[in-house]
Amino acid sequence: MSRACWVAVFLVAMNKPSNPIFPARHKCAVIPRRRAFTLVELLAVIGIIAVLVGLLLPALSSAREQANQLKCLSNVRQIVQAFVAYSNDNQGWLPSSAPKGDPTAPQGWWVDWRSNPATGLFNSDISFVGVGPYLKLTPTNVDLLRCPSDTECTSRVTAYGVGCSLSYSMNWAFGSQTSTPSTPVCSQYGRPAAKLVWIRNPSEKVLIIEETDKGTNTIDDGSASLFWANPTKPGSPNLLADRHDLNYRNITDPALATVNLIPNSKAKGNAGFCDGHAEYTDRRITQSRYHTLANAQTDALNAPEVTFK
Question: Is the pTM of this model over 0.85?
Fold first, then answer.
């Protein structure tokens, strides 16, 4: 067969509709157009996204606060373990709770809480006073003293013009009020301050709390009167902070006119105990006679009982 014949056969085969190898070409192929979204459909999608965001935001906020609470709990645990180490190195005595009126300041304090009100930086004493050496504190290395949810910490200024850039306070009942550990006296309770070995059931006795500054409450030193034991001097306890408690943190703590009246008593926060452990607990623990005195049967017998609200 000649070359011309082969070409003719090939061209016929190419134009044959049933040929599976060379299908026929359509001269006027139509490309379908994609249908665009209508305004109603776009608004519906936006509405669905807004609903999902509204559902997710509380969960994200809760997760973030839970992370802050765990970091704060870790801070408290490390601080109370430093107290135990300090006590072991000082014949069992605990340091001063660092109240603003303590004349031994800052040599006997558990921490030099004073800071520059303009910068929030601590004094250089923080490196060697109290538990400072055990926690390796420096004026610029103080994260262990600050709760991540305490957003006002670095700007807090006391009524007498000194900064107080920490979130945690020591139970006043166990603090020595002297720079000589061998003869400590706790002025509020009128008895020798506790050695750790004197504290009955130390795993149940509160040594450190994250203190609230909500409402009329203030953090103005390193000391916390968890149980107000002086019936001749009206006052009210320093309360456990509820920064991590989503159920209570936006509820105001009212000004307290009655001694040992504890508002929002189910509000929770972090506390450290005398055996060196820490836990997330509520004010019914941190403000009670049993959990805040070395021996609830013999200490502060004339003090009014606690009322939880």
Answer: no
